[in-house]
Amino acid sequence: MTKPTKPQKPKLPASGGSYAVQRDGALKQEAATQPKPPRTSAGQAAKKEA
User: Fold this and answer.
1) How many other CB atoms are there within 10 angstroms of residue 20's CB atom?
2) Are 16 and 42 in contact (CB under 8 A)?
3) What HEC string does 31-46 produce?
4) Quick one: pLDDT at residue 1?
5) Could you report how far apart the first and last alpha carbons of the chain are, in Å?
């Protein structure tokens, strides 16, 4: 319970693009949004709900 990386690991891959933004930055999210239009749709929806 002291390791906050365990609960974040499953959430990163579940988002798809969100994980890349927190790890690299918001710049990487924009790059993945252009080549992956269907994947960003689900990533943006999860970010808005969070």
Assistant:
1) 19
2) yes
3) HHHCCCHHHHHHHHHH
4) 52
5) 21
Q: Rg (Cα) of the chain, in Å, rounded?
A: 11
Would you say 8 and 15 are in contact if contact means Cβ atoms under 8 Å apart?
Answer: no
Six-digit token string for 26 = 């918001």
Compute the distance between CA of residue 1 and CA of residue 19 in angstroms, rounded to an integer. 21
pLDDT band at 45 (very low <50, low <70, confident <90, very high): low
Q: What is d(CA 5, CA 31) in angstroms, rounded to the nearest whole number?
A: 25
Whether the model pTM is above 0.70: no
CB neighbourhood size of 43 (10 A): 21
The model's pLDDT over 11-27, given as tens digits with 9 standing for 90+, comes to: 544 545 554 445 555 55
